[in-house]
Amino acid sequence: MRLSASDIARFTGGMLVVPPAHEESLVAGFTWDSRQVQPGCLYVALPGERHDGFDFCINALDAGAACLLVMRSPDEALTLCAQRSGAAIVCVEDTFTAFTDLAAAWRSRLSGSVIAITGSSGKTTTKNLVRDVLARAGSVVATQGNQNNELGVPATLLRAEEDTQFVVVEMGMRGRGQIESLCRFVRPDMALVTNVGESHIELLGSRDGIARAKAEIIAGVKANTGIAFINASDDFASMLPAYGSADERGVEILFFDGSGKEPASYAAQDGIEVPSTFASDIELDEAGCARFTLHTPTGTASVHLALAGLHNVHNATAAAAVGSQVGLSASVIVDALEKATSLDGRGRVVRTASGVVVVDDAYNANPDSMKASLGSFAAMHFAGRHIAVLGDMGELGDTAEEAHARIGSLVASLPIDLIICVGSLACGIARAAVAAGMPEDAAICVTDASAALDQVVSLVNAGDGILVKASHSVGLEAVVKGLVK
User: What range(s) does the Mur ligase C-terminal domain occupy (predicted)?
Assistant: First the structure.
């Protein structure tokens, strides 16, 4: 973002209460954290539960901020400080709203393509893969980490330059209308839905409700020129285009598939066309990483991912679908996919000095991602045992007990030797696993992450493999850190 203080005031509907020393100077970049101010940037004074960003305006000016975006009139001390440093102050009614308005205005100046991504699971990994693939075609800005909410989405747009060729925006969702609201200012050229699962079912009531909320991203794509990528193997693949009014708005639907299913079998299914990008001949190596043949409209090539898990075949084919749409050859796409590695908490494999293999999938969990992670973990080869540390899955509402029980039944059917279940809901996993035939002494329940770590440390041997997975609120990253130490 590079804008004058006058532009910032105009785009946000604010008042330029303190003009800059040099009207022609541009404000470059932004932050809402006074500790991260860079010289010449915009400091957005956001109110918070614990701290009010307005209280740190002088700190921001001292660090070199060129403009302050505030929602209270500056007092004499702040005004004098801004004037001494040559900085501007723009006063608005609400800094959150103003920040979004600023992103909406900046979006109009972007000349490249904007790709929006949502889904119940796999959003962040798919976003990273799309970013890495598109980097082979031009300059890319993508959502940092999982900053996919009402603050992170506008921030992604504002980090792009006017001539950035691709902007990849991850969109989270906690209720109906949220993605629609984000799309109003993101105005994506392309949209991608990874899948429709059970995450947030507590808020939306059913998977159908979740599908309709996810489909808002399709409805938000530019009419007549927009493209939406949909996972053909998802239960709601045939419904998403209708839920997103794709036909009425002239949005092109392109299907991808990482299941290994024969593409021609989709031809007979109402509402699903033969996937244009798909995987075949899928197999896992001893580390649980997939080898497969990737088929795209721009060619076919063999792939060997460094990411563990069959679910990453879906994520990879999704990214390949986007890459082929912008004209990249299959070989170029594959080169990008094979260089991708896992992030902390998202399937990262760590080999400790004591000879234990830790699969760190502790960042988050829902029934679909838990099922995928367990299946991939069970397929991995270890000299010792398969041990799974599983915590509560949150935001499942009335379906929570049943969802955890289903995971327990799944565990009992897999070659997993021991489970340590963390939290009251996760203990339902242990009970269901025992009911399905797992030995009672192989299913342990504990109350928190600290107790889980104590149990693991007392039981683990060199050569064992340990999967750690739960919703973020359970805090199982502490188990990973303890094991890695």
Answer: 345-471
Paired tokens of 384? 């010792």
Pair type for strands 26-28 and 2-4: antiparallel
Distance CA 27, CA 23 (A): 11
Which positions of the chain have pLDDT values less than 50? none
The pair of structure tokens assigned to 414 is 């897999």
Per-residue pLDDT tens digits for 282-323: 999 888 899 999 999 999 999 999 998 899 999 999 999 999
Residue 193 β-bridge partners:
118, 230
pLDDT at 278: 97
How do residues 41-93 score in pLDDT, each as one tens digit?
999 999 988 899 999 999 999 999 999 999 999 999 999 999 999 999 999 99
Is 121 annotated in some ligand binding site? yes
Ordered domains of the chain (ranges, CATH): 2-93 (3.40.1390.10), 110-338 (3.40.1190.10), 348-484 (3.90.190.20)
Token couple for 14: 């604010």
* Residue 124 is labelled as binding a ligand: yes
Please name every residue paired with 28 in a beta bridge, in sequence order, or none if there are none: 2
> Is residue 276 annotated as involved in ligand binding?
no
Amino acid in position 103 = A
Instruction: Check if the beta carbon of residue 195 is closer than 8 Å to that of residue 122.
Output: yes
Tokens 């893969």 correspond to what residue?
129
User: For the whole model, what pTM was predicted?
Assistant: 0.90
- Position 268 scores a pLDDT of 64
Question: What distance separates the 2 farthest-apart alpha carbons in the chain?
Answer: 75
Q: Do the Cβ atoms of 153 and 143 come closer than 8 Å?
A: yes
Is 376 assigned a ligand-binding role in the annotation? no
pLDDT of residue 358: 95
What is the distance between the alpha carbons of residues 18 and 10, in angstroms, rounded to a whole number?
Answer: 14
For residue 167, the model assigns a pLDDT of 98
Residue 123 assigned to a binding site: yes
d(CA 95, CA 253): 37
